[in-house]
Design brief:
Elements (H helix, E strand, L loop, with lengths): L2 E5 L8 H10 L4 E7 L11 H10 L4 E6 L15 E5 L6 H10 L3 E6 L17 E5 L14 H15 L4 E5 L7 H7 L3 E4 L1 H4 L4 H13 L4
Parallel strand pairs: 1-2, 1-8, 2-3, 3-4, 4-5, 5-6, 6-7, 7-8
Helix pairs in contact: 4-5, 5-7
The structure holds D-xylitol-5-phosphate and zinc ion (ZN).
Zinc ion binds next to strand 2.
């Protein structure tokens, strides 16, 4: 079954615990924590304090999405997160960074910006837990899904299946009820969403509808 990750970037920060409990009740599979440094992306979001807090109040797996320069610098402090996602564009030594993550007993996920080609993954694919395909330019929630990314997800799916790698495809950015079935059909294993979950007024209903929308997709 396709997994759903709730990105707390669009949550109400004044009631973070309630928001996390709400998505838990709604049955999401993991919590996605967006960390931005104001350099790699033109925005600043949350850091280790919030990540640790979220970890302390949820039993769900946590995935931290590092949209930062020098991701290797931050790995030690995020070592308690279940998955650590870093961008290939900001990492000069991906093998070293992947090993740092594994040494912390966390799972390495590599993120690609929309215009970054899949061949950047060629030598690291067998070393990682997942690939996170960005379907908007990173930095903000509430942006529009870039349609060309469907073909990219399809090609990545074919590559992973052909080589027999055990790698999960995460898709992040602009997911909504309309494009979610197409994204799953293209080969995604996990959908990450902020605004389509938190900006709807009814979080539980939003997650239920998202699940419903992808349930009938024939793979
Ligand atoms: C964007 C973040 C996403 C974002 C998704 O830079 O990485 O995780 O929160 O937000 P939506 O689902 O609203 O596009
Ligand atoms: Zn993200």
């Amino acid at each position: 079954m396709v997994k759903i990750g709730a990105s707390i970037l669009s949550a109400n920060y004044g009631h973070l615990e309630e928001e996390v409990k709400r998505v838990e009740r709604a049955g999401v599979d993991f919590i996605h924590i967006d960390v931005m440094d104001g350099h790699f992306v033109p925005n600043i979001s949350m850091g280790i304090g919030i990540a640790n807090y979220v970890k302390s109040i949820t039993s769900l797996p946590t995935e931290v999405h590092l949209m930062v320069e020098h991701p290797e610098m931050f790995i030690p402090m995020f070592g308690d997160m279940d998955m650590i996602t870093f961008h290939i564009e900001s990492c000069r030594f991906p093998f070293r960074t992947i090993n740092l993550i594994k040494e912390r007993d966390s799972k390495p996920v590599v993120a690609l910006n929309p215009s970054t080609p899949l061949n950047t993954l060629e030598y690291i694919l067998e070393e990682i837990y997942g690939v996170l395909v960005m379907t908007v330019e990173p930095g903000f929630s509430g942006q529009k899904f870039i349609p060309q990314m469907l073909g990219k997800i399809e090609r990545l799916r074919r590559l992973i299946d052909r080589e027999g790698y055990n790698v999960q495809i995460f898709v992040d950015g602009g997911i909504n009820l309309e494009n979610a079935p197409k994204v799953v059909e293209a080969g995604a294993d996990a959908l990450i969403s902020a605004s389509a979950i938190f900006n709807t007024g009814d979080v539980e209903e939003a997650v239920r509808r998202l699940r419903e929308a992808v349930k009938s997709v024939k793979l």
